[in-house]
TrEMBL record:
Name recorded for this polypeptide: Septin-type G domain-containing protein
Domain of life: Eukaryota
Species of the source: Henningerozyma blattae (strain ATCC 34711 / CBS 6284 / DSM 70876 / NBRC 10599 / NRRL Y-10934 / UCD 77-7)
Gene that this sequence comes from: TBLA0B10100
Subcellular location: Bud neck
CDD domains: CDC_Septin (cd01850)
Spans through the membrane: none
Record field: compositional bias (Polar residues): 298-313
Lineage: Eukaryota, Fungi, Dikarya, Ascomycota, Saccharomycotina
Amino acid sequence: MSSIIEASSALRKRKNLKRGINFTLMVVGQSGSGRSTFINSLCGQQVVDTSTTVMLHTDTSTEIEVQLREETVELEDEEGVKIQLNIIDTPGFGDSLDNSSCFELISDYIRHQYDEILLEESRVRRNPRFKDGRVHCCIYLITPTGHGLREMDVEYMKQLGPLVNIIPVISKADSLTQEELKLNKKMIMEDIDRYGLPIYNFPFDEQDANDDDYETNTYLRSLLPFSIIGSNDVFDIGDGTIIRGRQYPWGILDVEDADISDFVILRNTLLISHLSDLKEFTHEILYERYRTEALSGDTPNYSKKNSNHTNGRNAHHGGNSAIASPSVPQAHERGENAKQDTYTAREEQIKLEEERLKAFEERVQQELLMKRKELLERENELRQIEQRLEKEHLSQ
Ligand SMILES: Nc1nc2c(ncn2[C@@H]2O[C@H](COP(=O)(O)OP(=O)(O)O)[C@@H](O)[C@H]2O)c(=O)[nH]1
Ligand SMILES: [Mg+2]
């Protein structure tokens, strides 16, 4: 099956070559789910530190805060195609009893990136150094419990799925037997169907897709949720062959062995075959929907909306036709005296849009102020260090 992926990826690679590729990946999962290990395995290098020990929280009254940490890695494949990979790690995710604030932080971040584009698009003079920070894919790591999805997993996908391409992945797949893994995948897909969770399920245009794409995407769909094994260690297994693996008493397990995990397929999908698709879907579908809703002044409350109009995994991301249309006033459908309504609706829209932009600008201003303050503090620190050094120097 892997030949299919390689064949269509070769085509896409050439397409990408001309542009120079920037890709932003977010990795979400509870502490210990293997986020850091996955990031390092994906990049083939130590990008983030991994903790083999669990953090101890002595003060149970304090809420554990989720953080977003960004790392940028430049990867290059055999053909010399460079990918600027921005990875957002989410330490602290899901560690509190109430995780709503962590969902909020992530969703705010993603929306903020959309807002930035929105603002940039509306500028008369574009900023040539503007950086598109939109998150193109979110890997959601599911801990291998053997019991399908947990409530938190369902909530996360329900709330964030409309904003970002979520690919669900069972981590630490080596802790399940092949039978258990199969069953677990099935249970997770059943949950995703039952709750209508809008994950990224490799959509394609029924009319446009060529046979290759059709076959590849159908195959990738059948693998969902992917299962992976990660490792921070490499081993020389003789005759100079180096593998990334996990050492167990009975032997070394190769994380790139396609028979035991989908890691290689996932890596190919993200970095080669579906990199452009994920970016396009983010821009053409997810951002476009966000934009329409933002400009129509309809503050989206996805968690509520979704429970109504998503049924089945094709509900959101499967095929363009099935995308839920944003609620734009449909005044033209009403009779004669609809004109006045239209004007009022328009005025209302413009007003809301103005308010939204104003709020956004205020937020940017606020950030600017914060950054300035930080800068001042840093300068002060620096001055103090300089003074101390000078004193030390003099006293010698
Ligand atoms: N068995 C197994 N353990 C793993 C795997 N990936 C990571 N781990 C281990 O799980 C622990 C937590 O991993 P880490 O990447 O630090 O998780 P994070 O807290 O989500 O960043 C470490 O001891 C890792 O070595 C895996 O695929 N299989
Ligand atoms: Mg970590």
